[in-house]
């Protein structure tokens, strides 16, 4: 079945140019740290976009890297990069809420993708099925508790409440991506409980601070937790 058109198809050029291969943002760096050792591991990257994280995983010695995304436009850029500089990455055009694989991986990653996915439970079920027992699920996202600041949209609409969940589009002048593609806001409890229901156990939780450059231009927003990065472990046996 051909996946439906993705929100990111319309902004593929903007997104790919704004998030280049250089991995220097605190959340992505922390995600990679929580995944170590990467060398020799078989890794599945859900909502891989234009392949930024998949390429870094391959460069760090992963034995196998597979990326899955709904956006054909972003995957076109990922595949073009693979053709220009082959790293052995395999990309799949699919909806992660309905896609399934018979393969099992040592780790599954999702870098800032969960809030883009409308059916959270189905996406997490895909991640859990793809993991071998004892495998890692490592994800990053805008902190569900981040309230934003002047010209910076938070995790939920400025006129709403933290407990009001749902899809919305940002209005903050400095929140350029979320003004275009929107996001699903969910409470921290919703994320933690949804992941736990898939037989995964929280191993480490991190709240990396934003870069100094980001914080200096947004001092009010930087007072709050901005990013959330989590490492979960798949149970080795049913309780």
UniProtKB/TrEMBL annotation:
Pfam families: Methyltransf_25. GO terms for molecular function: methyltransferase activity. Keywords: Methyltransferase, Transferase. SUPFAM superfamilies: S-adenosyl-L-methionine-dependent methyltransferases (SSF53335). The keyword Zinc does not apply. CDD domains: AdoMet_MTases. GO terms for biological process: methylation. The keyword Plastid does not apply. Residues 43-135 form the Methyltransferase domain. InterPro entries: Methyltransf_25, SAM-dependent_MTases_sf. This is Class I SAM-dependent methyltransferase. It comes from Actinomadura luzonensis. The lineage of its organism: Bacteria, Bacillati, Actinomycetota, Actinomycetes, Streptosporangiales.
């Amino acid at each position: 079945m051909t996946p439906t058109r993705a929100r990111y198809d319309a902004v593929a050029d903007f997104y790919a140019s704004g998030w280049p291969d250089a991995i220097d943002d605190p959340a992505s760096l922390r995600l990679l740290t929580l995944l170590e050792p990467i060398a020799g591991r078989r890794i599945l990257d859900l909502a891989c976009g234009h392949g930024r994280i998949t390429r870094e995983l391959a460069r760090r010695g992963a034995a196998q890297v597979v990326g899955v995304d709904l956006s054909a436009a972003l995957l076109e850029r990922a595949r073009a990069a693979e053709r220009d500089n082959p790293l052995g990455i395999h990309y799949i055009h699919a909806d992660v809420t309905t896609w399934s694989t018979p393969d099992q991986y040592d780790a599954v990653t999702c870098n800032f993708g969960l809030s883009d996915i409308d059916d959270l439970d189905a996406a997490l079920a895909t991640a859990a099925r793809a993991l071998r027992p004892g495998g890692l699920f490592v994800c990053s996202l805008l902190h569900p508790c981040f309230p934003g600041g002047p010209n910076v949209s938070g995790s939920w609409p400025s006129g709403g409440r933290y407990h009001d969940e749902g899809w919305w589009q940002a209005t903050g002048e400095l929140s350029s991506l979320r003004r275009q593609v929107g996001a699903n806001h969910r409470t921290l409890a919703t994320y933690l409980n949804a992941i736990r229901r898939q037989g995964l156990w929280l191993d480490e939780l991190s709240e990396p601070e934003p870069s100094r450059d980001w914080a200096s231009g947004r001092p009010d927003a930087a007072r709050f937790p901005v990013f959330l990065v989590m490492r979960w472990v798949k149970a080795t046996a049913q309780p």
